[in-house]
Design goal:
The chain is of the alpha+beta class. Helices cover about 20% and strands about 40% of the residues. It has a single domain, classed as Immunoglobulin-like, CATH 2.60.40. The chain has 2 helices and 9 strands, in the order αββββαβββββ. The strands form 2 sheets. A 5-stranded mixed beta sheet has the order 2-9-8-4-6. Strands 1-3-7-5 form a 4-stranded antiparallel beta sheet, with no helix packed on it.
Length: about 160
């Protein structure tokens, strides 16, 4: 076979692999390279009106290969930005999630519920949150979970709340 054809086939295969990996990153919830595990939420965009409330469900999996370790998880929701001028601290209070940790053995998964409650006087526009999952070997080692945590399991997932009339 001609070398030009082999190079063309090799380049095509490489391109398919790169595209597949890029698609996989968005499917698994936009995990950064530093994340260790799986965290998902669907859908990631919600259209809501002032005064509306919804429940969202997160899925997490302890998918450490070749490990029998039980891990403990907690979650953090951080307000990132808004196009309405609402201070992030104010719209950060829209998300309620209980502080109970989740205990998972290897290859187990669990669901975590959170409630998003848009105030009656909420500004119209898009409000963006990042969601993180953090882990520890014991529940006593868990602390507040967020972008500066050293024990991030997965994240950030992006949650977009679009407030409309």
């Amino acid at each position: 076979m001609d070398n030009k054809i082999l190079y063309a086939i090799g380049g095509f295969v490489f391109l398919v692999i790169i595209i597949s990996l890029a698609g996989m990153a968005s499917y698994t919830g936009e995990l950064p390279v530093t994340a260790k595990g799986y965290l998902a939420m669907e859908p990631t965009v919600h259209n809501m009106g002032p005064g509306d409330m919804i429940a969202i469900v997160l899925t997490i999996e302890n998918d450490l290969a070749d490990s029998n370790e039980t891990l403990y998880y907690n979650f953090g929701f951080e307000p990132i930005r808004t196009d309405s001028g609402t201070p992030t601290k104010e719209f950060g209070e829209w998300v309620l999630v209980d502080n109970d940790y989740i205990e998972l053995k290897n290859d187990e998964y669990a669901f975590k519920d959170a409630v998003v409650s848009v105030p009656d006087d909420a500004a119209l526009g898009e409000h963006i949150f990042h969601i993180y999952a953090c882990y520890a070997s014991s529940p006593d080692e868990l602390s507040e979970c967020g972008r500066s945590s050293s024990n991030i399991w997965a994240g950030p997932l992006t949650l977009s709340i679009i407030v409309r009339d």
